[in-house]
From TrEMBL:
Transmembrane feature ranges: 60-81, 102-128, 183-202, 233-250, 262-287, 299-318, 324-347, 359-382, 388-409
Subcellular location: Cell membrane
Cross-referenced Gene3D superfamilies: MFS general substrate transporter like domains
UniProt key word Calcium: no
Domain of life: Bacteria
Lineage summary: Bacteria, Bacillati, Actinomycetota, Actinomycetes, Streptosporangiales
Protein name: MFS transporter
Length: 441
């Protein structure tokens, strides 16, 4: 009797998806290849723009200001324009954004212009990426189900971080060989090829929601998206976990002055800047491949603490190799974003994914920008080691509070996710809420 009752309530064994299974899905291959091409082209364009602006002006300040334009558009227009992903067919929206960005980059490559006009076009190109990113994030759960979504977004995360690690070095070499304007032309070509891949490799889907015809429909959609996210305790907790990156992104922003404390030059800066992305790649791989689906949400809070705790260790002024190790360990801890992302996707109604992801991503970028800005100002007074340690301590405190709150609602999240997407998907993954890296230009 007892044996039969135990068997009746036994859950099916959890099964983790493999990367081979994910790449067997044709639509995912198209999304991934388009993403990889765009990332590679963006790294090339970033190097080319920096060289182009500095050659024209000789001003480090103007060069830095043009670089910051890659942060502003998603912050300013992200919550509004992301709503387009909930009003129009997402495949169509991505293709249109790619074609428009290809046109803008091609114009920048072909036409000589003053820095003001160049800056305006950089702003426009990045702004067009906002609805594209929201549409790609919103369509991925339709392409991959269950734990395939977990593995698929981990692949996207690894691709992004690996591109960041290698892109600047390769980009510098390419720009040195072909020139700045030719490099911008290559970036335009990657967007054109990306649009073609999506056209051929993705199937048509209808618009997910009713198209707003009121004059301020997108603004109303933004307001509704904020209410959706912050009015739900689960979504609110998950988006706050995503925004925690404002603390552990500080080391990357202070890599140059930190390298100076060791008397190091560009090589030391590159070593420090690559430490956290390297840890993120390793952490995302290990978390998605070796942590059981049902355990990922349980581990999320502890890993968020791990993303901040190692940074406190730099307060004792360890040698360079130890600093690199500590930063890489913090990067590995940030793999908790994989869990936050999948839980967020499962909890958001499909018709509202674009707005919700746009709001979350805009907050991530705003937090990164403000965090680095404040840390840079503080480092002028306190020194980079002290500021990195303080960022780690503050981040750990916030992560601890978020974890206590998360433990109160986690049980309901797991039950809800089982009800919506089955027991296999109770875990997580992360791409758009990763909080790692910077927006593509």
């Amino acid at each position: 009797m007892a044996g039969r009752q135990t068997g009746r309530h036994r859950r099916p064994p959890e099964r983790q998806a493999t990367y081979r299974e994910v790449f067997a899905v044709g639509e995912f291959r198209a999304l991934w290849l388009a993403q990889a091409l765009s990332f590679a082209g963006d790294q090339l364009a970033q190097v080319a723009l920096a060289v182009l602006v500095y050659d024209h002006t000789g001003s480090a300040l103007l060069t830095a200001l043009v670089y910051t334009l890659t942060y502003l558009p998603p912050i300013v227009g992200g919550p509004v324009l992301s709503g387009l992903a909930d009003l129009f067919p997402r495949r169509t929206l991505m293709i249109v954004c790619d074609v428009l960005r290809a046109g803008v980059l091609a114009f920048m490559a072909l036409v000589a212009m003053p820095i003001g006009a160049l800056s305006a076009l950089v702003f426009l190109a990045v702004l067009l990426g906002t609805p594209f990113t929201a549409a790609r994030a919103a369509i991925l759960p339709d392409v991959l189900e269950g734990d395939r979504y977990v593995a698929g977004t981990a692949i996207n995360n690894i691709t992004h971080q690996a591109t960041q690690m290698l892109g600047f070095l390769a980009g510098g070499a390419v720009v040195a060989v072909v020139g700045t304007r030719q490099a911008l032309g290559l970036d335009a070509l990657t967007f054109g090829v990306s649009a073609l891949i999506l056209l051929v490799g993705m199937r048509r889907r209808g618009a997910p929601g009713r198209r707003e015809r009121e004059p301020f429909g997108l603004w109303r959609g933004t307001r509704d998206g904020a209410r959706l996210v912050f009015g739900d305790p689960v979504l609110r907790a998950l988006v706050l976990f995503a925004w925690l990156c404002a603390f552990y992104v500080v080391p990357e922003g202070l890599a140059a002055p930190y390298a100076a404390t060791f008397g190091g030059g560009a090589v030391t800066v590159g070593l420090l800047m690559s430490a956290m992305p390297t840890g993120m790649v390793v952490g995302a791989f290990l978390f998605s491949r070796f942590v059981r689906p049902a355990n990922r949400l349980h581990a999320m809070g502890w890993m968020s603490m791990l993303a901040c705790l190692p940074l406190i260790g730099v307060s004792v002024q360890p040698p360079l190799w130890a600093v690199v190790l500590l930063w890489a360990l913090a990067g590995g801890g940030s793999a908790y974003q994989l869990a936050a992302n999948a839980a967020f996707v499962a909890a958001v109604p499909p018709s509202g994914r674009g707005r919700a992801f746009g709001l979350a991503q805009s907050g991530i970028l705003a937090g990164q920008g403000v965090g680095i800005l404040v840390a840079g100002a503080a480092a002028q007074v306190l020194g980079p080691e002290t500021v990195v340690a303080l960022a780690g301590a503050l981040g750990l405190s916030v992560a601890t509070m978020l974890t206590f709150g998360w433990n109160q609602v986690r049980g309901g999240v797991i039950a809800g996710m089982r009800g919506r997407v089955g027991p296999v998907a109770v875990a997580a993954s992360g791409d758009e809420l990763s909080g790692a890296g910077r927006p593509a230009s």
